[in-house]
Each structure stands twice: as structure tokens, then as C-alpha cells.
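Human:
Focus on the backbone:
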Amino acid sequence: MQVPSPSAREAASMYGTAVAVFLVLLVAVLQGSAPPESPLPYQILLDPKGDLELSWDVSYTQETVYFQLLVQEVKAGVLFGMSDRGELENADLVVLWTDGNNAYFGDAWSDQRGQIHLDSQQDYQLLWVQRTPKGLCLLFKRPFGTCDPKDYFIEEGTVHLVYGVLEEPFGSLEAINTSGLQKGLQRVQLLKPKISIPALPADRRTMDIQAHNVLIPSKTTYWCHFTKLPQGFPKHHIVMYEPIITKGNEALVHHIEIFQCTGQLQNITSFSGSCDSKEKPQELSNCRHVLAAWALGAKAFYYPEEAGLAFGGSESSRFLLLEIHYHNPTNIQGRYDNSGIRLHYTAKLRRFNAGIMELGLVYTPLMAIPPKESAFVLTGYCTDKCTQAALPPLGIRIFASQLHTHLTGTKVVTVLVRDGRETEIVNRDDHYNPNFQEIRMLRNIVSVYPGDVLITSCTYNTKDKNEATVGGLGTEEEMCVNYIHYYPQTQLELCKSHIDSCFLQKYFHLVNRSNLEENCTCSQASGTTCPQASIPEQFASVPWNSFSRVVLKALYDFIPVSVHCNKSSAVRFPGKWDLQPLPEIISKLEEPTPRCPTSRDQSSSGLTVVTIGGGKV
């Protein structure tokens, strides 16, 4: 085969590196072979129509992700890759494209204007390409970290996958710009933990919690469906659950959650409709205890063999709320849905009840984020005093975690501290997005003992806000929560904190020049003696300048906190919990950094010319 010479523009993008030597991948032997049957364990549809299907697997020993991209209708090529927040600009990409005569595969990147450039370091390695009855299939791999400044560092947590479809040939790679392409994104957890699947009990039964013939709205919508357990349903253990996705809607059902309502509720009006509907019963706001959660790319969720999540019986509520997030950016019409979650449960109770505990910040306007901030951090504490009072002598084992904020959250991390030293990360998501929340199995079980500290920090972006965003239950307010799944279950259901209100009143007096008493006292003996004005109103009157921002940040970082060390009855454990000093940290864990591959395929220094049935895509 004669390999065409690169254009001058391509040569320039390689910073003078020779691009004349292309790797020619001959795939004639693959043309007659049978297509692989889903050789990789994780799958996701990238686009709403289902024309782009991604499968992948993870090798932790090689620190490499293997991708298989199936393109059902190939026109002139496709872009696929990752970016910080899901934009096709400033993205790390792999590109399959044609100039009308030859097809090419290469590692590329896009700048802030959407211009595509060939990467001087080719870290996506094409393994094979083949036409199948379903479309064009490509298998390629990429290390977690490459130490290439143009590449995305693949780490645990959310990854924003981006794609673009090329409708016509381009004379050179750098003639491509993302601005006019059909494009989109999907969020997944690429680095799935390698966990052995526990055996399920022989007596297990199933219960389907599903929507009923919902006409999927033509816009992104949260759909709420109320249901209840049968009267007199006895206590069981949930041992596994899995998604039920209506065929054809795989790209539209973004995530699903089942919430259990509080035990005090005796009856709730039946409801199925938009979660934002004015007709939604007010009682459903009391359904916030997460029972199960699934998101795109996730597989079945298994409890450890020795534990199960209790539901049913006299001690829990019969009432359940199914919430489905429909993501329909292209306004597909006339699609009906019956998706939900299938619970697998057993009447033979396991050794331990699994529990769910809330870590982070109390839902209160005392914790707020100033406007126009790109990375403002708030932190909540589960203190050593609380774990000493509430945890059993042998401690608890955390095996899964669900991180949660509202609309401005961009990063969440929970770290375990023992004897003043950060010892391990419980869960971390540096690319967190509130539209992608799932219960994630931990790669390693985390043991927490009496006297340990759990610190949860959330980072927020309020660049588009003109007023402070206060904490609270509302969508436009903020939260910082880590729902940890653990065993054995204890009485401790909530271990969170907030700043002491009196010190915040002193802050308002300082920055607002208000008429508050300058001598208001903040002591454990006398309590808060400052006036209790409306906190949101006082935040709204703050003149947001460098001084007020720095002082508020310092306040949150150093002032004593009020700790909520609560039982399931919402009553605190005995003890004094106000004006608690912040935990002293004498040693911190290092930030995660990419490890550069020890060796690199030197032959892959430029584009790969792909020959498939005459060379055209």
C-alpha cells in the first residue's frame, strides 16, 4: 500500500516531529472472522439514538483501559475522548477520519476554539479494526496516566466521555473543528473495581420497582413514582439489585434511585409524575433514605456475603419512592418507559444488617458559598468524639459510598483520619457532577474504629451566581454528603457538622456593619446570645469583595463546629456537641498524580492508516 504524505499543517502540529512514517494496519484477515460477542464487560450507549456503543475493561496491573467502540453508521469518521467537564473543546481525543481516499486513526486534542490537533505523543494504541454486521468496530487501549500535558488523567470517579460525528471527509486533521459537529457526552465511572461476585442465596426472591408506561418527556426530567410494600411484608435482607431498562431506552434512562420514606408516615397519596410538579404530594419530601441507586454504565450491585440491607417489617416504612432521571437532549418523541430496579432479597437474614450513614455537612444555611467562585471548599466533620461514642469496639466496615451535592458541586472527597494522620481515601471524585450519582463499590473495604475521624470536603463552582448559595434541602441550595454503606449497622445514622452560628453572626456584623451587638458571646456554657436574624437574608446583604470572601473562608476553616452525632430517631448521642474544635491533622495524604508509562511503542509516533475494504471508513 502506498501511504500518503502528511500535510504541512499536520507536520506543524507535531512540533517538527516527522510524521511521514505511518503504521499501516492491514485488517484483511479480520474481514472474514466472526465479530466478537461483547468481549469487554462494561457497555454504554454514547448517543441518544444508540449509533455509538462503547465497551471497556480495566487492567489495574497494566494501569490501562481497553476500549471497544462500535459505530453503527459510519459517515466520514468519529471523535471520541475525555474532557474535564464534558466539553468537546479542550478535550483529549482519539480520531477516526477520512480524507476521501484513506482512513486514519490517531491520538489528538482540541483547543479552546475546538480546533483539532494531532498529539505529538500517541498514547491511544489501535489494536484492531473490523467491519461487523452491526457496524465498524475498533479496539484500542490507553494508559491511565501518560504524563502528556494534552492528555486526560484517568482516575477513579466520574469521567466525562465526549464524542463528535464527522459528516464529510476532511483534507487534513487540522481542518476539523468541533463547532459544527453532531456531538454529545456521557458520564461513567471508567475505573470499575475488580470485586468477586458473592454467591446468592438459593431462597432469594425478586421485587421489581418500576415506572408504569411513562411517556418520556421531550426534555431532561426527574420522574417520581410512588409505590409501597405489601401490607404485613416481613423483614428481609436485600442481597443484590440490578437495573431494569426498557429496551430501546438505554440511552435515555440516565440514572435511577429508590428512596424509603420515614417510618412516621402512615399514608401517602398515590403519585406518578414530574418530581417538580406542583401536584407532587408534600409528604414525598420525607422520602430521602436511599435504598438502591443505579447510573449509566453500572452493573448489578451486590452486598457482601455476610451482610444485607434490611427492608420490610415493623421497624421500617412500607412507602417507597422511585426516581428516574430521563436525559433526552435531542427531544426524541413518543417513547414509553417501564424502567426501574429489581431487588433480590432473602427471608434468611444474614449475619449483619448493613447500614447507611450520612457524613458531611448538616443541611443548614449557616454553610454558604459566595457567588463568582470557581473552587470554594466546604468541609464537614464526623469527629473522634462521635465515633468513640457511637461505634462498636470492633468498628465498622465501609464497602460502598454515594457522594451527593446539588447543582454547583464539582468535587467530593471523604478521608479517614486516625491519630491525627490521614490514612486512606474512603471515596473521591475530582470530576463530580450532580447529574451522575450512583452507589459505588469501593475497591478496598475501609475499616473505621472508635476514635477515628471522617472528613468530607466538597468543592463548588458558583461563577454563574450573583448571590450566595446557602445550604439546605432545595435544589438551588447546596449539600455536601457522603452516604456510606457499611456493616454491622449501628445506631449512628448521621455524623455531620456545621459552623457555630454565633461566630457567623460576628462575621455578618464585621462585613455588613450591622447593628448586632459586638459583645455577643459564643460559649458552651451560655450558648449563642447573638440575634437570630434570617441567615439567607444576611448572606444576601454581604458585599462580596476580597475581604468578605477571605474572612468567610477563614471562618469555615478554623472556627469550632457544632457536631450532629445522631441516632436514627434524630436524637443526638449523649454528650456536649457544640463548639467542638476542628480535628488536628498532623499528616496529609499526597494528591493523586499520574505515573508515566515505563515503555512506549516507538512505532506509533504518528497517524495510523487504516485499510478497510478499499481504505474508506
About this structure: Residues 511 and 548 are 6 Å apart (CA to CA). The domain at 42-192 is CATH 2.60.40.1210 (Immunoglobulin-like). The helical segments are 8-13, 28-31, 384-390, 501-512, 535-540, 546-558. Confidence is low (pLDDT under 50) at residues 1-37.
